[in-house]
Specification:
Layout (H helix, E strand, L loop, with lengths): L7 H6 L45 H23 L7 H32 L4 H5 L4
Helix pairs in contact: 2-3
This protein binds zinc ion.
């Protein structure tokens, strides 16, 4: 393990272990096959942190992320395509956002699972417990 504490957000977005921020959390590094998208490793390869927690987690976070993406879309959609109450532009925005959210969904699901893990496992958890020299 390195001496410097890796930054939180890059570790989350690159799906790294919450305890050591070095090991990869998911069995498959890529998003495919989608059936194994959320398959977590039993233990972190690097530090041995237990990854498997209760099932059905991250659902609420996933919902929040989905809503967040809708709002994010608004910030670039409105300046580029414009949006008025006069025509159907709001509906076009909704359709565009829905498509983007569906396309991003596998990534959002992983991200919400990551957020959940990071809520429950803090940095250095395994270091305190296991490595006593
Ligand atoms: Zn680890």
């Amino acid at each position: 393990m390195s001496e410097k504490k890796p930054f939180l957000l890059p570790a989350i977005f690159s799906m790294k272990c919450p305890s050591c921020r070095e090991g990869h959390v998911f069995v498959n590094k890529g998003l495919f096959p989608l059936g194994k998208l959320l398959l977590l490793k039993d233990h972190c390869d690097v530090c041995g942190q237990k990854m498997k927690s209760e099932s059905n987690n991250g659902g609420g976070i996933n919902y929040a992320l989905t809503v967040a993406v809708f709002f994010l879309n608004l910030t670039w959609y409105k300046p580029i395509f414009g949006m008025t109450a006069k025509d159907n532009s709001f509906y076009y925005y909704l359709i565009t956002s829905t498509v983007i959210v569906i396309l991003l969904q596998p990534y959002l699901m992983r991200l919400s699972r990551m957020a959940y893990l990071y809520l429950y496992i803090s940095y250095g958890t395994t270091r305190k417990v296991s490595k006593s020299e």
